[in-house]
Amino acid sequence: GHSSEVRSVAFLSDGKQVISGSEGLSRVRTWMVKDGREARVGRVMGEKSVVTAVATSNDGQWIATANGSRPGDAHSNRVTIWKATTHRKVVELEGHSAQVQSLAFSPDSARVVSGSWDGMVLVWSTTGERLIAHEDFVKSVAVSHNGNFIVSGSRDYKVRIWDMATSTQIGSTLQHNDWVNSVAISPDGSYLATGGVEKKVYIWSLK
Fold it and tell me: Which InterPro entries match (predicted)?
C-alpha cells in the first residue's frame, strides 16, 4: 500500500483500475480491482508533491491530480492532467493560492473543476479558466451528468449551484449550519445530496 495517508481515490472509466493519491513517497498509484495488485509499481505518474485529490475522465483518456501546499515546493496548489494510458504529464494548471481539495471532470471530459482552500472553484479548459468564488475553503465539487451545472460545498456553510457555460450562480444559496464536506448530484440531475460537520445528510430537490 501507500506509505502515508491516502487522500483521494477514483475508478478509471473501464472499472478495472483504481487511482489513489497520498502524502507518501509513492504518491500516485494504480491498482487492479480484480486482485488488488499494483498495476504500475512506484511513483507511477512522476508526482513529487503531496497529492490531495484525484479524478478520472469519463472517456478514459485523462487523469487529474491536485497538489497540496508545502513551503518551498514549486508544484504546490497545482492541478496536473495526465494521459491515462501512458501516465504522461500533459499540462500543469496554475491558479489556486491554497491546497486543492476536490476535483471533478465534466461528462464530456473536456473540462475539469477544482475546489480549493483559497475559496475558489476553477473550471479548467484548453482556453483557460473561469473563476467562481466562495467565502471560505471549498471542500467538495460535483458536475451534473449532463455537464450543464456545477455544485460546490464550502466551509462557509453554503452550497452553491453554478452554470457551467457562464460561471454564474443558479438559484438561491443552500444553507447548512456548519462546514459542508461533500456534495453529490443524482444521475438524472433532479436531486442534490450534501453532508457536513453537523452530522446530517440533506437531500435537495433541483426540479
Answer: WD40/YVTN_repeat-like_dom_sf (IPR015943), WD40_PAC1 (IPR020472), WD40_repeat_CS (IPR019775), WD40_repeat_dom_sf (IPR036322), WD40_rpt (IPR001680)
- The domains of the chain are located at 1-94, 107-206
Q: Output the CA–CA distances (angstroms, integers) from residue 108 to 18, 55, 125, 144, 147, in the order listed.
A: 20, 14, 12, 11, 7
Q: Is the pTM of this model over 0.90?
A: no
CA neighbours closer than 13 Å in the CB half-sphere of residue 131: 9
Distances (CA, A) of 50 to 23, 65, 87, 130, 200: 5, 10, 17, 25, 30
Q: Looking at residue 165, what DSSP letter applies?
A: T
Is the separation of the CB atoms in 104 and 152 below 8 Å?
Answer: no
Find all residues with CB under 8 Å of 177, minimum gap 6, and list them: 157, 198
So what CATH class is 1-94? mainly beta
Total Cβ atoms within 10 A of residue 148: 14
Model confidence pLDDT, tens digit, residues 78-133: 898 998 888 888 888 888 888 899 999 999 998 999 999 899 999 987 556 777 87
Ramachandran quadrant class, 188 (left: phi over 0; alpha: psi -120 to 50; beta: rest): alpha
Where is 59: in which H helix or E strand?
A: none
Measured between alpha carbons, how far is 201 from 169 in angstroms, rounded to an integer? 23
Query: 135 CB contacts (<8 Å, ≥6 apart)?
Result: 119, 154, 156, 158
Rg (CA), the chain: 16
* CA 35 – CA 47 distance, rounded (Å): 25
